[in-house]
Amino acid sequence: MAPLLLLSLSLLALASASPSPPADEGSYIGVNIGTDLSDMPHPTQVVSLLKAQQIRHIRLYDADPGMLIALANTGIKVIISIPNDQLLGIGQSNSTAANWVKRNVIAHYPATTITAISVGSEVLTSLSNAAPVLVSAIKNVHAALLSSNLDRLIKVSTPLSTSLILDPFPPSQAFFNRSLNSVIVPLLSFLQSTNSYLMMNVYPYYDYMQSNGVIPLDYALFKPIPPNKEAVDANTLVRYSNAFDAMVDATYFAMAYLNFTNIPVLVTESGWPSKGETNEPDATLDNANTYNSNLIRHVLNKTGTPKRPGIAVSTYIYELYNEDIKAGSLSEKNWGLFNANGDPVYVLRLTNSGSVLANDTTNQTYCTAREGADPKMLQAALDWACGPGKIDCSPIKQGEACYEPDNVIAHANYAFDTYYHQTGNNPDACNFNGVASITTTDPSHGTCVFAGSRGNGKNGTSVNITAPSANSTTSSGIRSDLYYSRGIWSILTVMILNVANIL
């Protein structure tokens, strides 16, 4: 069986903007995108990664205009967010909320598929002084959408922490912290009246770490456990084989305790850290891989939960990138699926999930120099790729794996193919003014392994190569000037050729 790309989160079912999907509608996996990186990739490079990995749903922690512009006309569905530090102003002023919606929604919709607005995040547990205005802020944003006839297309909610749910097991006796009922009841009433969903951040990792051994690691990781080890709700006799389902069902029961029974749950964050401090021994690559792989499989299998079997519980993985400058412990910086340069942190184990991984390398393609291409035009294109094209050309420097054979065709093959793969195998990226073409023949040779080659990547699994950050000229942060320094004339040649093609 041909090796598969790392993380092609192909979404088996169509994603709907409706927050209240019918039982036969598929659930989906999304990904959160944090920005606490010292070398945050450019928005166009983030979108290239999303496309290459077939990630069709994302959540932003703000409404960054660069990201929203880059996402335009991609079909990727986006939850945008109002940061906590803007909550007070929006909660106290209709005009402030209207201006925010005008600037961050109306300016981009419908080219950018905004499906929901997250008003703050975990406000009731992290920003208690804003709790009194939370529901007002949500209503002000909704009113602004209503005035633009977008209220049925874009939903409004706020992510809550599961720590608000007291006595979460057994789930049937769970209830929200009663001291916050003055906020939670109006919130749920709003969600019900607008057909929206309750956003929850569900982290079995934290529950496991705080349980002092009461919660087994396998139960937290979705690992198979024998029936006699399953957790049983004594009131309903329902059996739970994993902590995630128990936490989601506790949310349903907590809402039912307040007489709200028809509000769906959307899990806006869930994941597992791949590295931690010495007092976090279970924050490991293997456990992060196990949890996220099993979570993806569980969600896409449309299993639902024991309380609501078959009902979609769509989930956003936390998160796309490791955030190296995020405040807090080591584990706080290591929840990502990718590093900033696009390298995968680990290879998800999804090979037994049917068609979840769509980027099968059986028909892998490459971009190489067209036979008979003019050497001067090849050199000009090569100079552009290694300069303004911002690919890492260090492997074709003297002494490196792809230096030999030392000729413009071989070096252009490497540069063209790297650029082609970092754009997500976009056919338009394999042209270079007519001197490049797509081929199914792997140009790798010896120790020189090209992007996308079946021999490339960890454990023999092909790894998607993504564009480096806009803040650096190579993925390693070292300027690749081997060819760029040969003269600005070649770059100008490419520019002239581009103009000639347009004319």
UniProtKB/TrEMBL annotation:
Signal sequence region: 1-17
One annotated Gene Ontology cellular component of this protein: side of membrane
Gene Ontology MF terms: glucan endo-1,3-beta-D-glucosidase activity
Reaction catalysed by this enzyme: Hydrolysis of (1->3)-beta-D-glucosidic linkages in (1->3)-beta-D-glucans
SUPFAM superfamilies: (Trans)glycosidases
Family annotation (SMART domains): X8
Protein name per UniProt: glucan endo-1,3-beta-D-glucosidase
